[in-house]
Amino acid sequence: MEGLTESWRSDRVVRLAQVGAVACSVLLPLVQVGLAFSYVGNGIGTGLWSLAATAAYLPLHLRHVWYAARAHRPPLGGWSLVVMTAIILGATPLAGNMWPRAYTALVVSFLLVLPAPWSYLGYVAVVAAAAPVAHALGLSWAAAPWLTFSVLGGSAALLLLVWLAATLTRLQAAREALAQRAVMQERRRIDDDLRHSLGSALESIAARGDRAASKVATSEPAAAAADLTGLADESRRTLAEARRRVRGYRQPSLRAELETAASLLTAAGVATRLDLPRGGIPDTIAPQSRNALRATVTRLLRAGPIGACTITATVLDGRMLLVVRADDAAETIEVRP
C-alpha cells in the first residue's frame, strides 16, 4: 500500500508540473494582450490585433510546450513553428509597441522544437531584435531595455518550468523501467530456485511413482509397498520444503534490494558499485533493515551532487552490515534476515 501511495503521489507531481508549464505559458501572452490595449501609444486597434494574433499563435505554442513537458518533440513541430513565426512577425507592425513581448513565446518554441545550434541562433537573434523593433514601433529607448529583459526573463522562467516537467517525466519513466527490471530479476531468481530445488524433488517423486506402478503391475506387492512408503515420505518432505520457500519469498530479497538501490543511484548519475563478500549474503532482509536502506538511498538522491557511491556488505561478529559510502560520508545498516 505504501508503494502504491508513493507511486500515486509521483504521478500527481509529474502531471501538476506538466499542467503548470502549460498554464504559465498562457498567462504571459494574456498580460501582453492587456498591455496592447492600455500601454502608452497603444489603443483599441492595437489591442484587437494583439488579441487576434495571440489567439492564432497561442494554440501552436501550447502544443510545443505540452509535448516538451512530456519529454517529447512535437510531431510536425517544424511546420507549426513556421506558422507560429509567420503569425507573430506578421502582426508586429499592427499589434502595438508592446507586441515584441510576444517574442517570448517565439524564442521558447525555438528552443523546444529546433535542434542545436539553430535553436540557439534563433533565440539570440530574436532577443536582440526585440528592443530595436519596439523602438521602431514607437517605444522610447528608455523603455526598450526593460522589454528586452522581459523577453529574457519570461523565456527563462517558461523554459525552467518546461524542462523541470520533462525531467520529472524522464525520472518517472526511469523509475518504472527499474521497477520492471527488478520484478523480472526476482522472477528469474525464483524460477531458478524452484527448478534446482523443488524441480529435482518432483522428478524423483515421479520416478518412484513409476517404479511403484511397474512393480504393482508385475505382482511385487512388498516392493511396491516399500516404494509407496518412500514416495509418501519424500512427498511430505517436498511439501515442507515448498512451504518453507514460499514463506521465504514473502520476505524481500536482500540481493534484489541492493541491485535496485545501485540501479536507482546509477540512473541519477551517481557511479555506484556493489562490494559483496565471496561467502555470499543472506537471502532475505527484514522490513526494518530494508526501510533503512531505502531511506539512505532516498537521502542520497535528494542530496547535492555526488561523485561516487559504494555499497559494501561485511560480516562483523556474526552480523551482516551494509556500509553505504558516498564521497566522504558513510552510513552503516545492520541486516536482519
TrEMBL record:
It comes from the Bacteria. This is Histidine kinase.
